[in-house]
Amino acid sequence: SPAADDDDDDLDLFGDETEEDKKAAEEREAAKKSAKKKESGKSSVLMDVKPWDDETDMKQLEEAVRSVEMPGLLWGASKLVAVGYGIKKLQIMLTIVDDLVSVDTLIEEYLTVEPRNEYIQSCDIVAFNKI
C-alpha cells in the first residue's frame, strides 16, 4: 500500500544524521558542559595552619580558624600534626565554592590578620582538588 511506503521513507536504516540532528546534539552537549561547569565549581582544600610556638593554645587556634564564616566556605575534618620541638600544626580540610571563595583572600584577609594572627603564624595549602 502507498501508506506503508511513506513510513519506510521516514525511517533511515543507515543512521545518517541530518544537519538538524547534528545541531541538536551539539546544543545538548554544550548545555551539558555549561551545566557541569556551574555544578562542579567546588574545590576541596587541605591546609596547614601553623602556630607561633609550642605555647600557642591549639584549641583556640582551631576555634579562631573555624570562626571564619563566608558564603561558599565549609570547614571539614582537622587534626594536629607534630612538626618538631613540641610544636604542632593544625591540618584542616575545607570545601569551597570557587566563584565565592578565594583561598588567597581567605588566608590573607581573614586568617593571618588580627585578631586571629595572635594564634596563627602562617597558612599553607597542602592540597587543592577540584570536585
TrEMBL record:
<feature type="compositionally biased region" description="Basic and acidic residues">
    <location>
        <begin position="20"/>
        <end position="41"/>
    </location>
</feature>
<dbReference type="InterPro" id="IPR014717">
    <property type="entry name" value="Transl_elong_EF1B/ribsomal_bS6"/>
</dbReference>
<dbReference type="InterPro" id="IPR001326">
    <property type="entry name" value="Transl_elong_EF1B_B/D_CS"/>
</dbReference>
<dbReference type="GO" id="GO:0005829">
    <property type="term" value="C:cytosol"/>
</dbReference>
<dbReference type="Pfam" id="PF00736">
    <property type="entry name" value="EF1_GNE"/>
</dbReference>
<dbReference type="GO" id="GO:0005085">
    <property type="term" value="F:guanyl-nucleotide exchange factor activity"/>
</dbReference>
<dbReference type="InterPro" id="IPR036219">
    <property type="entry name" value="eEF-1beta-like_sf"/>
</dbReference>
<keyword id="KW-0648">Protein biosynthesis</keyword>
<keyword id="KW-0251">Elongation factor</keyword>
<feature type="compositionally biased region" description="Acidic residues">
    <location>
        <begin position="1"/>
        <end position="19"/>
    </location>
</feature>
<dbReference type="InterPro" id="IPR014038">
    <property type="entry name" value="EF1B_bsu/dsu_GNE"/>
</dbReference>
<dbReference type="InterPro" id="IPR049720">
    <property type="entry name" value="EF1B_bsu/dsu"/>
</dbReference>
<protein>
    <recommendedName>
        <fullName>Translation elongation factor EF1B beta/delta subunit guanine nucleotide exchange domain-containing protein</fullName>
    </recommendedName>
</protein>
<dbReference type="GO" id="GO:0003746">
    <property type="term" value="F:translation elongation factor activity"/>
</dbReference>
<dbReference type="GO" id="GO:0005853">
    <property type="term" value="C:eukaryotic translation elongation factor 1 complex"/>
</dbReference>
<feature type="domain" description="Translation elongation factor EF1B beta/delta subunit guanine nucleotide exchange">
    <location>
        <begin position="42"/>
        <end position="131"/>
    </location>
</feature>
<comment type="similarity">
    <text>Belongs to the EF-1-beta/EF-1-delta family.</text>
</comment>
<feature type="region of interest" description="Disordered">
    <location>
        <begin position="1"/>
        <end position="51"/>
    </location>
</feature>
<comment type="function">
    <text>EF-1-beta and EF-1-delta stimulate the exchange of GDP bound to EF-1-alpha to GTP.</text>
</comment>
<comment type="subunit">
    <text>EF-1 is composed of 4 subunits: alpha, beta (1B-alpha=beta'), delta (1B-beta), and gamma (1B-gamma).</text>
</comment>
